[in-house]
Each structure stands twice: as C-alpha cells, then as structure tokens.
Amino acid sequence: MKLKLKGKNLIFLLLTIILMLSNSSFVFGTSKEPNLVSEAAILMDKKTGKVLYAKEENKKMYPASTTKILTAILALENSHLDDLVTVSYDAVMSIPDGYSSASLQVGEQLTVEQLLELVLIHSANDAANVLAEYVGGSVESFVSMMNTKVHELGLSNTHFTNAYGMHHDNHYTTCQDLANIMKYCIQNEDFRRIAGSASCVLPSTNKYGTRKYASTNELIIPNHSNYYPYLTCGKTGFTSQAGDCLVSCAYKNDLELICVVLGGKTRNGISTRFSETKDLYEYGYGNYTVKTIVNVNDVVRQLEISNGTQQTKNLDLLANNSIVALLKNSILEDTILTNIDLKDNIQAPIEQGDYLGHAFFIIDDTSYETDLIAAHSVEESKLLGLILEIGIGCLFIIFACILFFINKKKKIKYLDNTF
Fold this sequence. Notes:
By secondary structure, this protein is of the alpha+beta class.
C-alpha cells in the first residue's frame, strides 16, 4: 500500500517531528561557543587543567553555597565518616533568616557522613556550621583552615569568611579558583559519591524522625527536565548578591570536565545556571577529543650509528611513554610540531633501552614530551679497529724499512770513506 501525503499533511508531519526532537531529553554536542548570560564561567579539563572556555574567569565573584565544596573536603580530610557529632546552639542559631537549613536540633547527634550529605546534597548551612565546629574546634578556626588550604592550592584570588557561603564583602573567589578547588575535591572518592547523589535519607536521630532531601542540583536528578546524564557531581549556590551559581564535573568519551558558572540569572522561575552548564559541557564534548599523539614503543626517529656493526648499526629510537592530549577537533595532524633533542656523540656500544634523547610534540602552544630509548643493542664494529691496527702495522713496517735503508746507506758511505 502506498502512502500519499498532501502538502498540508507533510508540513504537519515535519512540524510534529521537529517538536518531538525539541522536547527530547537528549542533549547533542555543539561546535558553537555558548552565549552566556551568567557573569562568569569556565570549562576546564580535569586532567590537564586546560581551559576550553572562559568568560571573566579571573573576576572576583561571590561563591554563595559553592563554598561548601571546600568545607566538605576539609571535613573528609580531618575526620572519619562514622564520627558522631553533636549539634551546638551556636551552629544552628547563627544562620540568618533566608538561608537554607536542615532544621537541625540543638543536641541532635549525626555522623560526619550524614552531615556531609546535608551539606552537599541539601545545601544545609546549619550542617556546614556543625562540621566546621567539629573539625576546627570553632567556626573561626575552621575558616582559618579554609584559607590555609586555599593558600596551599596556590589560589591567590580567593578568601573565605564563613563555612557555608553567607554573603560577606570579603568572602570571594573566581571561576578559575573554584574550578581548581573542585579539581582537588574530586580526587576524594567519598566527595564524588556524596556530591553525586540525587537525594539522601537521614534516619531517625535522638531528636528527630526520618527525613529525606532531594539535591538542589537539578542536573543530577534523573527524570528532571534539566537532567544531564554525564554529570558526576556538583554543588549549587545562591544569594541575591552572588546570583545563581553551580560548580560541577562531568564525564563523557574518556574526557572529564569541570564547569563553573557564577552570577547566573533566574528567568520565569528557571535558573540559567543549569541550561548554561549543559551548554558549556556540550560545547566541550562537541569540540574537543582525547587523542593519542604517540604510543609507548612507537618509532619516533631512526639513526645510523657510525661505529656499529653492519647488523646492528641501524637503530630505531622509541617513545618511552605514550602521549595523550586533549585536542580541538579542528587541529590537523600536520600542525603538530615535533622537536628532537639527542645526546651528543652517540656511539656504540649501546644497550637496548638506553636513553638517547628527548622528543617534544608542540600542539596548540602546549608542549608534550617523552624520552627516546634504543630499540635494540648496538655492538661496536671490530672492522675499524682491525683496519686501524693494520694501518699502524704498515706504518711501523714502512718506518722500519726507512730506518734500515738510512742505516745501510750510512754504513756504505762509512766503508767508502775507510778505503
């Protein structure tokens, strides 16, 4: 049976398909650089620190609750997950009105892991204060620990005054610094696990019944309209001064990226931090690929060793390690510059695996390097020595003959003079 579509029906069918695709939950990579309304943003490769996109990445901004990623990692590094912590009066009563909390009760007892879930998933400010007091002895001492860690990480544009992101003129950071803090945090598997959870259940305590909290990060909640399947973990933040904030991490196609969006907007009740974070990730995944430039034991250069034997003098120089680089898809292989730096006066004998030089691969102003090693042993040729010995012997014979004839000539002359 043949199906015939008239003009109006065909247009209707095409419009239906377009609408279906526009409502699809799939996100497609894009080569177009995002046009953000957020004040500042950065997209960074976790492995190398290479920046794939940046907008005002070094501008000092207010981080709001993204502060809590540093609070969490310090708690993980200075306590145990099963430590039991008691909520103090100051920890809960010092939270200003309008800031999120888990309504923890004075004297309530929770484990460090439960408090971390409240901090990273629910963004509970009271839980952050409880952790700060437990780890630092006081909130003030803990804040000092935060700034010490910032200094240790080599971050010069960040300073904290509290443990959870309450607005303060002297509580600031940048997208670049936050990305580096996140890069440090995700080295901890417990941080990854907790910050990557879509919800948490707080079991009954000595003060309260069972409670359940959903993540404030819509990108990590399955079936949510903003769900992004490649996101692995993240932390939101908001104050009226900071705007909408989000620091996160995603993994796709063997490429792990870190994204920070600060100073985002809310339009018609929808935060741009989620859509713009997805746009940034898809820009990265659509434009960059992890490529192998050279594999371990690949032949990089060939040499002829002048004093090697005929069988071994032709020598391959091998890469001692693989070089894997994050490259923009538009970079062509013939734009990769290779510089070889060999040892001086390479002569036999050479052992297999001997270091003979260095290779540098320059790609998009970034240099990657590997040692060059001998593929096989090179034996020293005996022929040259033999020729040298014969030559020396010949010279000795010639010299001896010359001396003989000189002496003989002198002797004949002497006899003539005698007679």
